[in-house]
Design goal:
Keywords: Membrane, Transmembrane, Transmembrane helix
Shape: globular
Largest sheet: none
GO cellular component, one term: membrane
Order of helices and strands: HHH
Protein name: YggT family protein
Strand content: under 5%
InterPro entries: CCB3/YggT (IPR003425)
Pfam families: CCB3_YggT (PF02325)
Length: 96
């Protein structure tokens, strides 16, 4: 039972990892004017991704210093996911 719970948590962390990566790539594509935000599909995807990640980013943004246009909160979240997945979960579930 514990291993099944471990696998579910790992899958959820993987999904969150890819959501953050996709959001970062889309923000770069929008910044470099490769995709247009006037498209309903693009706007819907951006809004959905923002609503999924904003609750995770906001506490980090409150703590981190303001660097202007450079937002490092996705990198902090990705680093936290990596630490949780590789250093916290295995000992917690006795998989070391």
């Amino acid at each position: 039972m514990a291993y099944a719970l471990y696998q579910i948590i790992v899958i959820l962390l993987d999904v969150l990892w890819w959501i953050i990566i996709i959001q970062a790539i889309m923000s770069w594509l929008i910044a470099f004017n490769v995709i247009n935000t006037s498209s309903d599909l693009v706007r819907t995807v951006i809004i959905a991704l923002d609503r999924m990640t904003a609750p995770i980013y906001n506490p980090i943004r409150r703590v981190m210093p303001d660097l202007g246009a450079l937002d490092l909160s996705p990198m902090v979240v990705l680093l936290a996911i990596l630490i949780i997945r590789q250093a916290v979960l295995p000992p917690l579930f006795g998989l070391v």
